């Protein structure tokens, strides 16, 4: 069943993308030789007047084959097809638009999907999970459970909308819904110092609240300069103001630059079971795992981040030199205390059993609900805004890849998408539709990258021709596209290997 979902989703996504190329190519008079869904041997085909429409064995993409698109088709059809119908003979601006039309149609299809989803199901609430003490949100009176309705008069659909506004550092006016009442709050973001997350192994000692030095170097001026001297696998010593020390092996260090913040955490899910799972019952709320109390979804998310680590591993979360959170790896035997029908119940199980429960889709209750606007037309327009916010976030993530702020390891390939499709299918049709929208938007954004073998690469070559006012040698272009194709295949194989590693739990 999951395979059928996967094939159906990929087919729909590919058709939307390739339809853009097909329509624009036909509009500019280019002969289309084949419109294919999938790669490899043909499974089914229909021969039209000029175009063969086919379905191929491997459902991992598709293509529109245009006469004169590359050297092979140029030579093969040079005599049979009029010159004016060859892609290679079209002006640069037309070839640019033909290449651009695929990503454009993908993005438009993604917008349409989210608009329809919004009109049918509404939009996820942006709920405050927790407010940090002594933060702007704390002094403005924001509370856990508040729903953020609007920012400066604009409706909030995605938490990323608020995050982006906060990053500017400018004062904000928030409309907050609390117990059915709308409250207006004026709030000024605060610039937080550089932050750090230390992952330490073989830990000796215990941390204090305020960090003074790392290996004898004061941290008052931030972590960046110190981080250059820290090496994975080497011993590091952290000294705190109250005289406490931590001596351990450095396993990983992640730094965040100074940024403006309100001091709030958004709700994503609650440590409450949504379904029966092994010894747990729907409605059970986790309140403790071993010695770690679980107050809310934030505490639970910290635990989940460290659950695969062993007991000797410690996670230290710092904002500036102040320690915000300490999480240690869990032992193999877990004691999980849940609140069930007002009574505390203790359940014992192995860590591997608990991890397998965590991997089940829809196992925990969402920390937010869905809301619906006044009418279907407003819902449709807000769906477009929803897609816009997601598209903006995708562009930022992709750009971070080129600046070194993101890694290919954070991306998902075909194997990972199969798992996502399976999880979405188990969570219901709504999640499947939203996943289709995300994949469609992603396909549009990724294909705009200025890399050979992608539509963005063709667009760049066409732009170069428009600037230099002459045609690039088709042989040179073919070589560039071929090299780009092999690079792209290498990237896909690399991401696939990472996906397989995730699937196997490595």
UniProtKB/TrEMBL annotation:
Matching Gene3D superfamilies: 2.30.42.10
Membrane topology label: Multi-pass membrane protein
InterPro entries, sorted: PDZ, PDZ_6, PDZ_sf, Pept_M50_Zn, Peptidase_M50
A GO term from the CC aspect: membrane
Residues spanning the membrane: 96-123, 428-449, 478-498
A Pfam cross-reference name: PDZ_6
Any one GO biological process: proteolysis
Cofactor(s) needed by this chain: Zn(2+)
The entry's keywords: Hydrolase, Membrane, Metalloprotease, Protease, Transmembrane, Transmembrane helix, Zinc
Family per record: Belongs to the peptidase M50B family.
Protein name as it appears in the record: Peptidase M50
Organism: Kosmotoga pacifica
């Amino acid at each position: 069943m999951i395979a059928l979902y996967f094939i159906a989703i990929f087919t729909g996504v590919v058709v939307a993308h390739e339809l853009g190329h097909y329509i624009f190519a036909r509009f500019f008079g280019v002969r289309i030789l084949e419109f294919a869904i999938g790669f490899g041997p043909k499974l089914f085909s229909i021969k039209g007047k000029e175009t063969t429409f086919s379905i191929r064995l491997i459902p991992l993409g598709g293509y529109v084959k245009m006469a004169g698109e590359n050297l092979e088709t140029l030579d093969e059809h040079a005599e049979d097809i009029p010159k004016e119908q060859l892609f290679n003979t079209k002006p640069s601006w037309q070839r640019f638009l033909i290449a651009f039309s695929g990503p454009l149609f993908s993005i438009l299809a993604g917008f349409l999907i989210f608009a329809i989803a919004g009109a049918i199901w509404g939009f996820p609430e942006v709920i405050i999970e927790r407010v940090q003490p002594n933060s702007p949100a704390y002094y403005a009176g924001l509370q856990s459970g508040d729903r953020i309705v609007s920012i400066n008069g604009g409706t909030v659909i995605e938490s990323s909308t608020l995050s982006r506004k906060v990053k500017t550092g400018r004062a904000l006016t928030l409309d907050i819904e609390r117990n059915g009442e709308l409250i207006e709050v004026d709030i000024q973001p605060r610039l937080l110092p550089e932050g750090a997350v230390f992952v330490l192994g073989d830990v000796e000692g215990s941390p204090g609240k305020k960090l003074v030095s790392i290996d004898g170097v004061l941290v008052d001026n931030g972590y960046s300069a110190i981080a250059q001297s820290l090496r994975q696998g080497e011993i590091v010593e952290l000294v705190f103001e109250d005289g406490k020390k931590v001596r351990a092996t450095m396993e990983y260090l992640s730094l965040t630059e100074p940024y403006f913040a309100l001091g709030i955490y958004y709700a994503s899910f609650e440590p409450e079971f949504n379904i029966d799972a092994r010894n747990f019952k729907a409605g059970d709320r986790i309140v403790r795992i071993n010695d770690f109390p679980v107050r809310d979804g934030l505490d639970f998310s910290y635990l989940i981040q460290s659950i695969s680590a062993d007991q000797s591993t410690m996670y230290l979360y710092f904002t500036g030199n102040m320690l915000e959170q300490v999480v240690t790896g869990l032992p193999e035997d877990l004691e999980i205390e849940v609140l069930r029908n007002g009574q505390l119940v203790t359940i014992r199980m192995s860590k591997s059993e608990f991890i397998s429960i965590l991997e089940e889709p829809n196992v925990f209750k969402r920390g937010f609900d869905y809301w619906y606007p006044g009418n279907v037309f407003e819902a449709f327009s807000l769906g477009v805004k929803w897609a816009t916010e997601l598209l903006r976030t995708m562009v930022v993530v992709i750009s971070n890849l080129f600046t070194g702020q993101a890694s290919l390891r954070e991306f998902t390939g075909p194997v990972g998408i199969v798992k996502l499709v399976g999880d979405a299918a188990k969570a219901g049709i709504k999640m499947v539709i939203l996943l289709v929208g995300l994949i469609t938007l992603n396909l549009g954004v990724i294909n705009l990258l200025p890399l050979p073998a992608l539509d963005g690469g063709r667009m760049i070559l066409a732009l170069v021709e428009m600037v230099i006012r002459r045609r690039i040698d088709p042989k040179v272009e073919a070589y560039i596209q071929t090299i780009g194709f092999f690079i792209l295949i290498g990237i896909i194989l690399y991401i696939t290997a990472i996906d397989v590693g995730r699937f196997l739990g490595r």
